[in-house]
Every structure is written in structure tokens, then in C-alpha cells.
Amino acid sequence: MLFLARMDVVFPESMTDETKADYQHREKAYSGELQRTGVLKGIWRVVGEYANYSIYDVEDNDELQTVLSGFPMFAYMNVKVTPLAKHPNATTDDFFDGNTIQE
Amino acid sequence: MLFLARMDVVFPESMTDETKADYQHREKAYSGELQRTGVLKGIWRVVGEYANYSIYDVEDNDELQTVLSGFPMFAYMNVKVTPLAKHPNATTDDFFDGNTIQE
Amino acid sequence: MLFLARMDVVFPESMTDETKADYQHREKAYSGELQRTGVLKGIWRVVGEYANYSIYDVEDNDELQTVLSGFPMFAYMNVKVTPLAKHPNATTDDFFDGNTIQE
Amino acid sequence: MLFLARMDVVFPESMTDETKADYQHREKAYSGELQRTGVLKGIWRVVGEYANYSIYDVEDNDELQTVLSGFPMFAYMNVKVTPLAKHPNATTDDFFDGNTIQE
Amino acid sequence: MLFLARMDVVFPESMTDETKADYQHREKAYSGELQRTGVLKGIWRVVGEYANYSIYDVEDNDELQTVLSGFPMFAYMNVKVTPLAKHPNATTDDFFDGNTIQE
Amino acid sequence: MLFLARMDVVFPESMTDETKADYQHREKAYSGELQRTGVLKGIWRVVGEYANYSIYDVEDNDELQTVLSGFPMFAYMNVKVTPLAKHPNATTDDFFDGNTIQE
Amino acid sequence: MLFLARMDVVFPESMTDETKADYQHREKAYSGELQRTGVLKGIWRVVGEYANYSIYDVEDNDELQTVLSGFPMFAYMNVKVTPLAKHPNATTDDFFDGNTIQE
Amino acid sequence: MLFLARMDVVFPESMTDETKADYQHREKAYSGELQRTGVLKGIWRVVGEYANYSIYDVEDNDELQTVLSGFPMFAYMNVKVTPLAKHPNATTDDFFDGNTIQE
Amino acid sequence: MLFLARMDVVFPESMTDETKADYQHREKAYSGELQRTGVLKGIWRVVGEYANYSIYDVEDNDELQTVLSGFPMFAYMNVKVTPLAKHPNATTDDFFDGNTIQE
Amino acid sequence: MLFLARMDVVFPESMTDETKADYQHREKAYSGELQRTGVLKGIWRVVGEYANYSIYDVEDNDELQTVLSGFPMFAYMNVKVTPLAKHPNATTDDFFDGNTIQE
């Protein structure tokens, strides 16, 4: 079951560059783990903004809440979640499995 | 180069169900063709709304404009486009090729 | 898995009172059936507006989309869906089973 | 008489983790007490946000104001209240008593 | 128990002046009756807009919904309701009884 | 001449509880004086928010500006003012004189 | 006493050019009369929009409501009114009397 | 050439009353000079807000930018500029010269 | 003197394709003439929307109003105008003269 | 391929004037370099605001992200990017080459 999230990061003014770098380092590790386990199907930078769009594949809302609140930088994020369903015009049940292009 | 689009469909009050069905039929064919040619990487229904989020892979803005304005229902859509860039935490250059999960 | 929905109904100017009444009649039957089968956990009128807040218990996003798009008046509704998770301060896993008050 | 509330929590930058934890501890106790006395009929986490939707059963607006302003974290919350009335399609007067599903 | 409502009237383009006048006539009668029975404590025109702010004194949300939906022009109104509670700085329990000014 | 105001209070993070209490004490005195002199016709708490709706009876805009900017907490308020006129459906010229209910 | 108004005109789709021209003709006469009597102190086109900003000098809110609702095109206008007071940095009580520039 | 500006002032929490007073003193001098030289045609307080509407007469956009950015408190202002053109219903080319009222 | 405009086109539901094509034909001629005379410095399609961003070089606001209201489709456009001034980091007074790139 | 960006600068309250000046100095150098290399086709001040509209010519979204995030003041900017395509009414493929005016 897929959800689209838009995440905007806002660090407080008082945070040092060192602390920011540490957060970003831990964020990268957490994000990578979610990708490797197939929970985070895709993540992209919104051009010009400290923000991303990302797509999550989870069992239910509770798992999604656990996944999102586990981000090291969660306390500094504004997150908006959109539940996604299969589109009637979709030619596949899974756009991420590499089999979409059939010709 | 990827773009995220949110498309909201608003049919005019006077449109007959038959005309709507015809639009939807042609829309499905057009959308399917875009998927088969690798331009439309994914499309999902926004739950509860006559809307979708979709991701396009195009050469440039002019191609994207051609692709979007080619939708049979384009005149009845509100479309918002977000340019996407590679995210520093992404573990792959292509989330749609089926090779993302490495374990 | 629970979702909160806010539904706002906007009938077109040209719809006759008779047609509206027919829609409302079928809507009531559909809504009642969803309540009897435990999908629609609660529905309340937003005071002063032709709108409701309602809570759905479904297996996944696809089922929710099926349930919502099945409303007879769906084409005349603006629906906004919010995924709900268990709250850390909740004293029960199910607020609708009548066992919440423990004293 | 029911009211839906959406509560968004925003802690100030200067608050220590220890103070936050203390607030959350007292909040949980207060919330639990409201649930046990039947004032707080349900509370759910908005997925991805430090926010909840909650439903209150009170005698009047003054009681609701007393209940809401009594939350230990009230000074750090943005609260939006929506008065709820019986919906014409509701099959029960009380969705929380466990008797909704009749089949 | 008091509620503040803001009501904005939007008549459809196709409504004749005669029909509008008939609605306004019935609206005035209904509004007058609510004032005489003490339900509608005050009503004022928002300068420059086809809108009013009005204050209602009702027993509960269901009564308010009945009162508001009873307006002859209800189908052409956008209504936003705000629940009001006693203000800690209020010098009286009832601002409408003519006894507020004490000097 | 009446004006409706909505006032939202936002205290800065650094303000001590003692200072807040002092402001609130002076605010109460100022508000009470305005009520006694008939300038402030009514004031109500917006349920769940550190905000009020209040109605002022003044000679002109300059007097209203003087009254509003005289609030001890004015620097910490967001104030939105709406000019009110007599409503064509009003059954009285003064809803606050205690003579509205005629039956 | 001055008020700033922003007026946006929206004619219905079905109105003929002849009817529009008739409205505009009567509007011009009404507007001119307001200028000659000193009620309408100034009126300017918002560049690129079918809208104006205008400044009114009236005795009270009721007079302003009468003036605004008297515009022939009032039913097709969205009007937002802002009450204006004397600014502490103003060097004159009347910016429209031609005596502002003192050097 | 005229422009309408709305200016909202937001002082930072840490600014002392003395510094504020100094800014306001310099602001008054600057504003007065603009009025005397005929650049600032009018300025009014928005009732209830730390904001003004003001009208500027300049040669071009660059001059307006110079004028606005020259305000001592410019760094603490949110400014929104609206270009104004002659209105077809205006009975004069200059509403500020004292010759508008012709009767 | 430059202005940025964003123009969104909304044709009424009842307009025939033939009429639309006629408008677009006349629009193209008018736009081309503005480009040839150096008034319209640039115009670009907003990808995915029936909208453009365009930059105008005019003597004053009145000329801009004349230019914009002269568009054949002006009655079907929502136009938002932003006055532009020279940027302190600009390396040229005219970005459109082909001499910007100096290396 | 062109993109329009609107950039709003918000410096934190604690930043010294010296630091601001240093940022602005480095910003000017970076911006000038982008102009010399033909990436930044134009940049203009939004009159009255600490903001600009600027147009970028890049190969793809990733390059744009690199360019924008390279601004020294990027962490203090809110940036909104709009992808631009060729407009059907454009008389040239390049409005910046100095050859637009053909008469």
C-alpha cells in the first residue's frame, strides 16, 4: 500500500552546522535502510527547496507513522501524507519492479 | 529528468455521461501509451478525489508540455508540476528499474 | 486501519429537487450498509454546512477508494482523506467497541 | 454533544527534551483521565504530523473550553474545533457504544 | 450556549429577481421569529458584502443545525460556525440583557 | 457604530509566566473599563484558542484605533476588524439593550 | 471617516455585451456622483484586473453600506472593506484637499 | 504614476522599546519628507493592525524601490505593492489636488 | 520599466471550439505585434497549465493597463502583475539586448 | 531549458549586519558568474520586497538544483521554481539574444 509524502525540513536558527551535518548523516543511513528493505520506494529532491517527495510501501497507517517518526530529523520536518490507490489507467500493479515498459 | 504532476479533473456540469466515458476511454489509451514508451513512470489515484499523482521522465520542459497537453482530458484538468532532482540520500539513479532493493 | 474523511457536497445549479432527493435516498441506503458492515465507524454533520466528517475502517487504500467512490453522490463531493494511526495516549485499540470507559 | 478537534503541537526551540518528556507524561495522564470519564471519545494520531484528531462529548461550549485549556501542553497547541451534529444517515445515536454493527 | 456564524449568500446566476425577493421575504420572517424567541441574539450586515455575522443561543449542536438549516436561503449560503465560551474578562454572563453597563 | 474584532494572542517564547500574568491582569482591568463605559458591547472566548471575538461601539475609526491600540497586550495580538452595519432583517436597532425579545 | 475598498467585478457568463455596457454606463454615472459629493475620494484601476481600489469618506458604517450597495453592479462585485484611521506619521488630516505639499 | 502599498511591521522579539522608539522617530521624519516632496500622497493606519496603506507617486519602478527600501524600518516590514492606473470612472486625473469636488 | 505578469486563461464552458480558435488566432497576432514593437520582452508557457509568464516594458502603469486590456482574450484571463526593479546583482541594465554574456 | 524562480530572502534575527553584508557580497559574485556563463538569463528585484524573480537556462533539473543550492544565501531563501516551455505565440526561440525586435 503506497503513500506519497512531501517533507519540508526547517532547522532552528540556533542549530550549529556540525549538528546539522550529524543529523544529515544519520538521516542518510536511515533513508538508505528504508530503501534497502523496500519500504521507501523512491525519494526525490524538490528543486530549489529543502524538501523531498517520497513514496512509501507499508502494511498500514501505524507502520507508516512508525517509519516517518523514525527519521532522525522528524522533529524538524513538516510532513504531508497522501494515500495512493491503484489508478484505473495503470498498466501495472507495481511501477517500481522494472517491468513497466513492455515494448 | 523527472517531474511530479498532480492532476485534478473537473468536468463541466453539462457534459453527458456518454461524453465522459468517451474521454476516459481515450485517456486510458493515451496514458497506457505513455507508460509503454517509458514517459509516464507511474500514476496513482489520490484516494477520495478525482485526481492523480504521476511521474514523468522527459528530455526537457517542452517535451513535458507536449506530453501533458496531449492528454485528451487536458482542457478539464488542473495540473501542477514539480521538478524533481536526485536526492542526496537516494541509493539509486533510477527507482523504477526494479533494482532498488539490494538485499 | 482508520481514515478520517471530510466530505463537502456541492450539487450543480441545474439539478432538480427530485433528483437531489433521489440521490439522498440512495446515499442513505449506501451509508447505512457501510455502517452495518463496520466499514463506516461514524458519521457526523458539520454544523451549518452541507458536509460531514466520517471515519472509515478498511484493509488498505484501494478498499477506501472503492468505498468512497461508491457513494452515489461521489461526483458531487469534495473529499479530503486523513490517515489516522494509534495515538500514544489512547487507552484502547478500538474507540468504537463500547469498552472505552473503564470506571 | 460532540466536537471534533484537530490539535497541532509546536514546542518552542528552547525547550529541553527533559521538559518535553515531562509535558508528554502529564499530557498522557490528563488524556487518559478524559477517556476514562467519557469526555474524550476518541483520539488518533495524524500520520506524519505532531497532531491529533480527537472527539469530545461535553455539555456545552464552556465545558469544552475548560477541557481543552486543561491540557498540560495547551499553550503549545494550535486547536481548531468543529461542532458536530447528528447526521441524517447515521444509524445510531452513539457510534462509540459498541452497538453500531447490527448484523 | 452561544455560537458565532458568518453567512455568505451566493445566489445562482439563473435565479430571477422575483425568486430572490421571495426568498428574502421568507428569510426575513424566519430571522424575525428566531429573534423574537431569543435564539438569534444579534445579526449584522458585513459592510460591502452579501454576508452577515450572527450570534445564536441554543441548547446544543443539534438545535443549532436545525436552526441554521431551517433558513429558507440555507442552500445558497456558505456558513462558518465558531463555538463561543465565556471570556475570563467578561463582566457579565449575558451581554444581551441590557444590564452590561453598570455605571 | 459597531465593529466585530477577532483578536489572537501570541506571546513570545521568552516571556515569563509572571509577565504574562501581569499583562493578563492589566488586560482584564482595561477590558472591564471598556465594558462599563459601553464601548465593548460583548467579548467571548473562541473555544480552544487563545483568541476572542469582541464587538465595539465607537464614534469612528480613529476612536476604534485608539481603543484597540490601548489594550495592554496589543503588541502581542493579531487583530482583524470587520465593520458592521444594520441588517435588513434585524428587528431592533440595538441587540444589547435587553429589549430584543418582545414576546 | 475613511475606508479603503477593493472591488472585483465578475460578470456572469450569460450576460450580453449590451447589458454589460448598460451596467458600466450607469456605474460611471453613480461613481461620478459619489465623487462630486465628496463621498468617493479616489478610485484607481488595479493594473491588469477588472478591479479597483477606492477610498470612501462617510459618516458611519451604515452610510458606507448604503453607498456600496447602491452601485449598479454591486451584485456582480466582490468587495473587501478596510477601515482606515489617521496615521501617526501623517502630516495632514486630509490628503485630498490639495494642501499636502507644504514646500 | 501611482502605486498602492500595504506595509505590515513586525519587530523582532529581542528589540528593546528604546530601539523601537528610535526607529519610529526616524520613520516619522522619513515619511514626512516623502509627503512634503509629493512622493507619498497619502498614508493611513489599518485599524487594529501595525500596518498602513499608502499611495506613492513616482517616475518608475526603480524610484519606488529606492523610496520603499529607504524606510528606516524597511527590514522589519512586509510590503505588498499594487500598480494603479487611471480608472475609467474617475472624474479627475489627480484625486489629491483638492479640486475633485466640483459642486 | 519592466513588469512581470502571470496570465491564466479560463474559457467559459459554453464557448465553442471555433470561437476559442478565433480568440487564439487574434491573440497570437496581438502578442506578435507587442513583441515586434518591443513592449512584450518575453512570453513563456507555464508547463502543464493554460497560463503564461510574460515581461512587459512600458512607460508607466497606464500604458501597461492599455496593453493588457487590449489582449483579445483579456475578459477570460486572470492577470497578476508584479513591478520589477533593477536588481543590485544584475550585471546589465537590459537582459534582453543579447549582450549579457560577456565572456 | 528555462525555469522561472522567485526567491524570498529571510535572514535570522540574530545575524549581524556584518555577516549579512558578507553574504550579500558573496551572493553578488556568485550571481554575476552565473550571468557571465549564461545560466542566469535575467534577475529583477520584486519592488518593495527582499525578493527576486530570476530566469535560469540549464540542461536539466539536477543542474538547476546544483545552481540554486550553490547560492551563498540559499539556506536563507524560500525558492519557488516554475518550469517554462515555449509559448505558441512567441516569435523567437530566445528572447535574450537581442534579436527579438524585428522592425
Automatic annotation (TrEMBL), chains A, B, C, D, E, F, G, H, I, J:
EC number: 5.3.3.4
Domain Muconolactone isomerase, first and last residues per copy: 1-89
Matching SUPFAM superfamilies: Dimeric alpha+beta barrel
Keywords, ordered alphabetically: Aromatic hydrocarbons catabolism, Isomerase
Recorded metabolic or biological pathway in which this protein acts: Aromatic compound metabolism; beta-ketoadipate pathway; 5-oxo-4,5-dihydro-2-furylacetate from catechol: step 3/3
Catalytic activity: (S)-muconolactone = (4,5-dihydro-5-oxofuran-2-yl)-acetate
Name under which the protein is recorded: Muconolactone Delta-isomerase
Highest taxon listed in the record's lineage: Bacteria
One Gene Ontology biological process: beta-ketoadipate pathway
SUBUNIT field: Homodecamer.
Broad class of enzyme this protein falls into: isomerase
Entry-linked InterPro entries: Dimeric_a/b-barrel (IPR011008), MLI_dom (IPR026029), Muconolactone_d_Isoase (IPR003464)
Family: Belongs to the muconolactone Delta-isomerase family.
Organism in which the protein naturally occurs: Kocuria marina
Pfam families for this protein: MIase
MF (Gene Ontology): muconolactone delta-isomerase activity
